[in-house]
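User: Hey, my collaborator sent me this sequence without any context and asked if I could get a structure. I don't really work with proteins. Can you help?
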Amino acid sequence: MKTLYHCVFSLHLHLVLVTKYRRRCIDTAILARLQAIFANLAERWGCELLEFNGEPDHVHLLLSVNPKVAPSVLVNNFKTVSSRLIRKEFATQVRRIYRKPVFWSRSYCIVSCGGAPLSVLKQYVQGQAGVESGEH
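Assistant: No problem. I've predicted the 3D structure and written it out in structure-token form, which is a compact way to encode the shape of the chain:
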């Protein structure tokens, strides 16, 4: 449990972001950079990135959030900032896949986590296939 001035809370979100057209453009270096970007953004939002993993065409984030956070605003910020930084830092690599300045699909999946224990969700995210395997 965490606290703010007038509340006690335990809010967890499982977020899945998919690359535009499900293109397989996330390699080990991009995955590591995305984890650093999302951890930094989570901290700036007063949240915590509990687990992170991904495959060549999508990533999973398990976040602990505070009640002041609007999930859609958080997701929009995460996608905008990470897309801009990845396209800048991996420009040559990303331009081979996308001609336009895009990285993430407009759609995403966000699920509140309350039914399953966090240990089960952590195992699920940790168990996602590595970027080399290409399995879904």
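In plain terms: The two ends are 33 Å apart (CA to CA). You can pass these tokens on to your collaborator as they are.
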